[in-house]
Design a protein that fits this description.
By secondary structure, this protein is an alpha/beta fold. The protein is built from five helices and eight strands. Among the domains are: 53 residues, Ubiquitin-like (UB roll) (Roll), CATH 3.10.20; 87 residues, Translation Initiation Factor IF3. The strands form two sheets. A four-stranded mixed beta sheet has the order 2-1-4-3.
């Protein structure tokens, strides 16, 4: 018999569901609230009589815990949990803001507001000064602009090193201040209350 030229379609095996459960017995949880320790095959039959699947939800428990429920509904709940977990995760990005050595105050303040928002969202900011033509002879102006930018953002972020010149660009990277660091700084700035002075002890006769 010659081998088939076309590969057989892969059958997706449902892990930890019904016959795929390898444990000899499980702590079965049923929709009516009944919880019993049963042989796995008996628990599967009980679930199927209810038109449900037996799904292993705590494989490391002793004995493993399995729940009788609809497999499609369980898949939906798992995907929903994963989606919510991804929403809570924050991916730190590097936001670039570009300047010229002779950037005017209006453009400077406009980008400053953007930087404050980026840092407040937990992202890093990369400020870049671009030199064109003969401007490369005045890199000191770009450095002063970057230092000014970093100093103005001091309440919102910390500078990673000194401004660097690479080719015709100078840049500096600013990282957001962590929340606990901000709280400590606020507590440090609060005026300390003087401790109450104890009244003098009465004089002895």
């Amino acid at each position: 018999m010659y081998p088939s030229r076309f590969p057989r379609p892969r059958v997706k095996i449902r892990e930890n569901v019904n016959e795929a459960i390898r444990a000899r017995e499980v702590r079965a949880v049923f929709p009516d609230g009944v919880v019993e320790v049963l042989p796995t095959q008996q628990a599967i039959r009980r679930a199927q009589e209810l038109g449900l699947d037996l799904i292993l939800i705590a494989p490391t428990a002793e004995p493993p815990v399995a729940k009788a429920m609809d497999y499609g509904q369980w898949q939906y709940e798992q995907k929903k949990k994963q989606h919510e977990a991804k929403k809570k995760q924050h991916v730190i990005q590097v936001k670039e803001l570009k300047f010229r050595p002779n950037t005017d105050d209006h453009d400077y303040n406009f980008k400053m507001n953007h930087a404050m928002r980026f840092l407040g969202e937990g992202n890093r900011v990369k400020a870049i000064v671009q030199f064109r033509g003969r401007e490369i002879a005045h890199t000191d102006l770009g450095r002063k602009l970057l230092m000014r930018f970093a100093e103005d953002l001091a309440p919102y972020g910390t500078v990673e090193g000194q401004p660097r010149l690479e080719g015709r660009n100078a840049h500096v990277i600013i990282s957001p201040i962590k929340k606990d660091t901000k709280d400590k700084a606020k507590d440090k700035d609060k005026p300390k209350l003087a401790s109450p002075v104890a009244p003098p002890a009465p004089a002895k006769n």
